[in-house]
From TrEMBL:
Its EC number is 3.2.1.23. InterPro entries: Beta_galactosidase_C, Beta_galactosidase_Trimer, Class_I_gatase-like, Glyco_hydro_42, Glyco_hydro_b. Keywords: Glycosidase, Hydrolase. Residues 2-48 form the Beta-galactosidase trimerisation domain. It comes from Enterocloster clostridioformis. One of its GO terms (molecular function) is beta-galactosidase activity. GO terms for biological process: galactose metabolic process. It comes from the Bacteria. The gene is bglY_2. PANTHER family: BETA-GALACTOSIDASE GANA (PTHR36447:SF1). Residues 60-113 form the Beta-galactosidase C-terminal domain. This is Beta-galactosidase.
Length: 120
């Protein structure tokens, strides 16, 4: 709750559960830790399993697509400078790019792995 000024007595963060879904509304400009903690709590509660373990750098996006029993993991650097990715726990067959300590500027790494082999 906001304690004073125009927003005094109104919530800074609200959460509503409906059916199997949950939505949160953040009506504040909080520190990054607020968003990190909130998203972790929501993901844990929903049983979401991360695509990769470890720290994902700010300019890196990780997503996956599935086809049958295979998962394709896309690791993309959206920065004009190389980014260190050695803290990310990456595994699978390299389809494009190389697993290493760095991901080149605007680089992409694609991994192919069996869904049943997911490691977390």
């Amino acid at each position: 709750m906001y304690g004073e000024d125009f927003y005094g007595g109104t919530p800074a963060v609200t959460k509503n559960c409906y059916g199997r879904g949950t939505v949160c509304y953040v009506a504040a400009d909080g520190e990054q830790r607020l968003y990190d903690d909130l998203l972790k709590e929501l993901a844990d509660t929903a049983g979401v399993v991360p695509i990769v373990a470890g720290e994902i750098p700010e300019s890196v996006e990780v997503c996956s697509r599935e086809s049958g029993d295979t998962e394709y993991v896309f690791v993309q650097n959206f920065h004009s400078e190389a980014v260190e990715i050695k803290e990310m726990k990456l595994y699978g067959e390299e389809i494009l790019g190389e697993k290493g300590e760095m991901l080149e500027p605007f680089g992409t790494l694609i991994l192919k792995r069996k869904i049943e082999d997911r490691k977390m």
